[in-house]
Amino acid sequence: MKTGWIFLLWMISGLFVLGSGVMERAPEHLLSDPSLLAKPMNLPIVPSRTSTVFLAEEGKWQSNLHSYITYFEGRFWVTWSSSREKEDGSEQVIRFTTSKDGHHWGESSILVDGPEGPGRWIARGISVRDGCIAGPQRPV
Hints:
With 140 residues, the protein is α+β, with helices and mostly antiparallel strands. It folds into two domains: 2-42; 63-139, no CATH class. Helices cover 18% and strands 30% of the residues. It contains two helices and eight strands; from the N terminus they run ααββββββββ. The chain has helices spanning 2-20, 27-32, and strands at residues 63-72, 75-83, 93-99, 109-112, 121-123, 127-129, 132-134, 137-139. A four-stranded antiparallel beta sheet has the order 1-2-3-4. A two-stranded antiparallel sheet has the order 5-8. A hairpin with a 2-residue loop joins strand 6 and strand 7. The longest helix is centred in the N-terminal third of the chain and has 19 residues, at 2-20.
């Protein structure tokens, strides 16, 4: 959860600093006074666009959920649960991919293959700790 808030604050403050040049929106200033973030509806809307990270194909890895994102060593990293047939299917795996700009994504790879037997893995976050990237996965 902490990584998600740091990423959100980094994105918000970065967009404001770049978009308006107002240094009062730098992360250290925002974090020093929680009331500055108390009214998110008062924040201006910045231009945005949608980018596809992974395109599912029928009969292949078509159910994708539990997605998480972080920024590490100059790249955005995304991890998610992926299943061939249905949400939380027994053959579910954990996939990941990276991007330098958050819009152009590399080919995804399997990070954790499905366990033997009736269980399955579920992605449960991705974070940076002590200079390493980590993603807690949980067997179900």
